[in-house]
Specification:
The structure is a homodimer.
Chain A (H helix, E strand, L loop, with lengths): L6 H13 L3 E5 L14 H15 L5 E5 H5 L3 H13 L5 E8 L3 H14 L4 E4 L5 H8 L5 E7 L14 H11 L6 E5 L6 H8 L5 E3 L9 H9 L11 E5 L13 H20 L5
Parallel strand pairs in A: 1-2, 1-8, 2-3, 3-4, 4-5, 5-6, 6-7, 7-8
Helix pairs in contact in A: 2-4, 2-10, 5-6, 8-9, 9-10
């Protein structure tokens, strides 16, 4: 097996090999996402998150905490975050989607919170403040830090796209990758942009949100994100994230766990088909 | 007295009028900042933060929580944050320096965490993802949201300065200010830049970090940040932040509280002198 310098990248590559899945599933205690029968309180959210994990363990490569939903619950939410972290298996990538970004000792403390205290393998970081804001995360050599490069929301037109800022960020992050522990958050937008970013950072792992409810074009982003190499040693380069897409709709009858497992299987098939260029 | 549409801006203007201070003081439970005699644990940090508050209450206009330092303590840190929030007086601006930035329902939950749960009057936000990432914060019409516009760290040269991204952000934020509840984080950098930003957002409150330990040029930033108007109705437009600058050095003997109060008084004098164009 190929060995990557960064432990978290190795863990992701191994989880993908073992499960055959290039999917990350979201852990988001949000009232709007709760299936029928779960109460919108800390107890209900805990049961919901445990159900998601039980239903998907062994068939996904990663879990991603969205910290906003935990923080909105106040101090009990931060407790819940740590509690759920402790029930996650050790052989998947655990991502803290926190989009932190600050400088100096502040950035060091954010990295410590996510990597040392919470024990995440990976975190999302906002690169706006530049290299010295990234370095305290990258100093955790065995962790995989995904930097925001391009997002698929309308507001990407405000700053990221004009003047090609996302290209500057892609080049910048690529130059920060001496330890092999940089990743990139790349939203599925119009055709061509993901290929362009892949061209600027050929070996860097992409975390691709928005393939479920947000309706990104999976086929296009899979083809462009894969780039010229499709060998197994580079599989850590593509991780597709879905949250709402694997959850029961309010109208879905039946066992939440079985529905989540079935929908996750469908998403795995869709991603595999897209990566093979076959459609789903 | 002038009435601003945003309650938090009113509160800041009134606190400045009442105290004569345009200073924000940092609440940062960091081991490196602890005076002699305080233990680097949650109990010691609580005593430290209470000491800072007791020593400065009535002589500063704002307090700023740096969330990184609380998060690095794990769940007890988030508890401490809320506990300290409850002991802060109601008549000062309470800023949650969190630099969050995300989209849609995630951004809504970050805003809810800081504004509804924690009860901050103000928060710092990273504008990289654009207007739809800002809107969930701005929908809290009575809160003052400070957006990162320009920072003084070396990494500002990576993305914020090339191509004048900070100018685009200043113009963008200015266009988001229909409710009068936008602010800007503006670092003291080389002469000319703060004036340029003030020109793009004439009435927007600036939060100016880095005047203490980071050694920004207080005179220059005061003159340029004040802009053409220096009337009392616009005093909320300048808030200078200091953390380490008011804390005892490890070598300082004597009562921590008395030292903090004396240093805060000195910073108040320096800021006032700089705003009057007199030097300190």
């Amino acid at each position: 097996m190929t060995h990557f310098p960064c432990g978290a990248v190795n863990k992701l590559a191994e989880a993908i090999r073992r499960t055959g899945s290039q999917l990350s599933v979201g852990l988001e205690p949000c009232a709007a996402y709760l299936p029928a029968g779960f109460s919108p309180d800390v107890k209900g959210y805990e049961r919901f998150l445990r159900t998601v994990i039980d239903a998907t363990v062994g068939i996904v490569a990663a879990y991603k905490f969205n910290l906003a939903f935990f923080e909105a619950l106040g101090p009990p939410g931060w407790e819940l975050l740590f509690k759920i972290r402790r029930v996650l298996p050790d052989d998947v990538l655990i991502i803290a989607d926190a989009k932190r970004g600050d400088i100096g000792t502040t950035a060091e403390h954010y990295a410590r919170a996510l990597y040392d205290e919470l024990g995440a393998d990976s975190a999302t970081v906002n690169p706006l403040m530049g290299r010295d804001s990234a370095e305290p995360f990258l100093a955790h050599a065995d962790k995989l830090t995904y930097f925001l490069v391009l997002t698929s929301n309308p507001g990407a037109q405000d700053f990221l796209i004009p003047g090609g800022l996302y290209r500057s960020i892609a080049s910048g992050v690529s130059s920060w990758n001496s330890r092999g522990n940089c990743g990139a958050v790349v939203g599925a937008t119009r055709p061509g942009r993901v290929a362009e970013i892949r061209g600027l950072m050929p070996e860097i792992p992409f975390l691709i949100p928005g393939i479920g409810a947000q309706g990104g074009d999976l086929e296009v982003v899979a083809r462009e994100g894969r780039g010229s190499s499709a060998s197994s040693r580079t599989q850590a380069r593509l991780l597709f994230h879905v949250t709402r897409g694997v959850l029961p709709l309010k109208s879905d009858a039946g066992d939440a766990s079985a529905i989540i497992r079935a929908k996750t299987g469908e998403w795995n098939s869709r991603v595999t088909a897209a990566l093979d260029g076959r459609g789903a």
